[in-house]
Structures are given as C-alpha cells and as structure tokens.
Amino acid sequence: VGIKTDTACHARKVDQLFGAIASRYDLVNDIQSLGLHRVWKRHVVALSNFSEGESGLDLCCGTGDIAIGLAKRGSSLIGVDMNRPMLQQAARRLAKRGEYRVSLTQADAMKLPLRDNSLDLVTIGYGLRNLKNMEDSLREITRVLKPGGRLLILDFGKPANCIIRSVYYLYLAVMLPVFGWLFCGNASAYAYILKSLKKYTAQKGVTSVLRFMGY
C-alpha angle 29/206/2, rounded to 5°? Predict the structure, then answer.
C-alpha cells in the first residue's frame, strides 16, 4: 500500500509541476540543456524513419516538439499526454504552424485509447522516467505497436564513469533549486528530477526490460 501511495503522490507532484510551468516549459528546457534537447529530439525524428502512410504515437508529447518534427515527414500521428496545460501549449504551437497532421489526446500512458497492433511507431521523449510504472507502460506501448513496429525512447541517462556521474549529480543539485526559484517561485519544485533520476534504471535498466519483452 505504501508503494502505491508514494507512486500516486509522485505522479501528482509531477503533474502539478508540469501544469505550473507549461507556458515556460520550452524555455526551461533550453536553459537546462543549453539548447541541446532540441538537437536530441531532431535526432530521434531522424532515427524514426517515419514516412507517409505510417501511423505513429508521440507519448508524453508535452508541448509537441517531437510530434511536430514527425509530422513534417508527411504522415499523421497522435500526441498523448496526461497534462492538459501541456497539451494546450502543444495545440497552440500546432495551430500557429497550421499543422493538421497531429491529433492531441489526454490519456494515461498505461491505458492508451488505441487498438492492439495499430501503430508503426511510438516515440517518448523525457517521459518514461516520470510514468507511474515503467514496465506497465512499456507493456501498453508493446500492445499498440504492430509486429515489427519501432519504439524510440529519449530520456536522461546516467554516466558510467562514477566521477562524471558525481559531477552530473552535483550540477543538478546546485542548479535545480535555482530553476525552481526562477520559474516556479519555489526552490524545491524541481527536486523530484534528481530524486527520480537516482532511482531511474536509465539506459542499462530500460534496455534490459525491453530485451526481456522481446525488443
């Protein structure tokens, strides 16, 4: 029971945070990553090989960066996120660009309103770590993917070198309170990022789970 409560509490805090910063989310990412998040997202789009006639899903789509990039490749897709303010920001960006190939839906990643074996591609950028249950979410993604479908995951990693990893954690420990104060008026607002990252299985753990699932 305690685990379920902690998980629900974490999910609620994450949802509240993203709702509070939705209008400044892209700016926050630019500052935190020095603009590199845009490079990494473009790389995901390039790796996707998404082409006209295919069906796709951008899960935890946020303000729509990856979804917009995929739509430019000529096919329609769905953008799903649990957070309504983030979806509203995505809708504004899509309308501003006259982009009609992305349909937005508010839904739980563990209960996708999609048919079995219906998608050629699923992408998820900086979302897997925030989901209530990573394994259940990956099983749900597997359910909606066609046999041979493609899954691309972009998220924080953990440096293998312990010294570099320590410097990485120190940077986050120092800078996250600054970001929280600047953008939320609360120095502890971003504290969950470092906590969740330390618990997150990162690249090795996610790879292990995916291989167990047959990827």
Answer: 85
